[in-house]
């Protein structure tokens, strides 16, 4: 680390990469040097700044303190190919993709919920799936105060969750992005269907929520749906708690929870339009019957669902004196 900040690399210049740069600037993260890396070298404008984009290769991580990976997932993706090289050169890696989220050796972190999981990092930290992130932010105060038994969630997810191709499918009618047209439609399939009948997005929500909340047996039944909204995921969530509660108790739990923007006014409900461009998780439409709670939550999937949460992880690493330390066993 230089005296005036950290050397930071952002791998990937897509929608999430752009938001990462914007969030680093907006949150005034201490950066002494910002490197943008991608498959090919080029000059490009990201978040209003002009960058000389470097090639994402092992040598590009020399001297890097912190590396955000926001590119392609899978065996040919940058995180799988290059995160090890970055860590070997002294960087802490925060990966936005799904490749390492369920690895027992990798903390999966939403700072408002489980920042303490960072204490065991070995150089790599996973950023949760966008739909999972906003849900666990809202579930966490209920889990802490009352206990969780079961969660049923239906999502209404924006096309920007599919990257630029998703936006083009909505704005320009681009074909082949979704199995059916997205304009004036709702598509109850995000990812592919597994043998159990759940989509990959639904399975992510179940398994990631269990890990983040440290509740390996939590019942999570998810139905994930893509809708013709540009930015902002919405979710209808039904929860069965560990005990009966009053509505006042639930409202207080939401109102005092970190990361939640909450209004107890039933008529003051959040929508994706208001959440777009905002870093928080918005909660409204709360209903309580005995040990059952229903609520509506919304968040910007590119911010709290990706870039904001990643930068918050980096801030938490600094707060816990963990940046630059691999905490190797």
UniProtKB/TrEMBL annotation:
<feature type="active site" description="Proton acceptor">
    <location>
        <position position="233"/>
    </location>
</feature>
<dbReference type="InterPro" id="IPR000534">
    <property type="entry name" value="Semialdehyde_DH_NAD-bd"/>
</dbReference>
<dbReference type="InterPro" id="IPR036291">
    <property type="entry name" value="NAD(P)-bd_dom_sf"/>
</dbReference>
<feature type="active site" description="Acyl-thioester intermediate">
    <location>
        <position position="130"/>
    </location>
</feature>
<protein>
    <submittedName>
        <fullName>Aspartate-semialdehyde dehydrogenase</fullName>
        <ecNumber>1.2.1.11</ecNumber>
    </submittedName>
</protein>
<dbReference type="GO" id="GO:0051287">
    <property type="term" value="F:NAD binding"/>
</dbReference>
<dbReference type="GO" id="GO:0004073">
    <property type="term" value="F:aspartate-semialdehyde dehydrogenase activity"/>
</dbReference>
<dbReference type="GO" id="GO:0046983">
    <property type="term" value="F:protein dimerization activity"/>
</dbReference>
<dbReference type="InterPro" id="IPR012280">
    <property type="entry name" value="Semialdhyde_DH_dimer_dom"/>
</dbReference>
<dbReference type="Pfam" id="PF01118">
    <property type="entry name" value="Semialdhyde_dh"/>
</dbReference>
<dbReference type="GO" id="GO:0008652">
    <property type="term" value="P:amino acid biosynthetic process"/>
</dbReference>
<keyword id="KW-0560">Oxidoreductase</keyword>
<comment type="similarity">
    <text>Belongs to the aspartate-semialdehyde dehydrogenase family.</text>
</comment>
<dbReference type="Pfam" id="PF02774">
    <property type="entry name" value="Semialdhyde_dhC"/>
</dbReference>
<feature type="domain" description="Semialdehyde dehydrogenase NAD-binding">
    <location>
        <begin position="7"/>
        <end position="121"/>
    </location>
</feature>
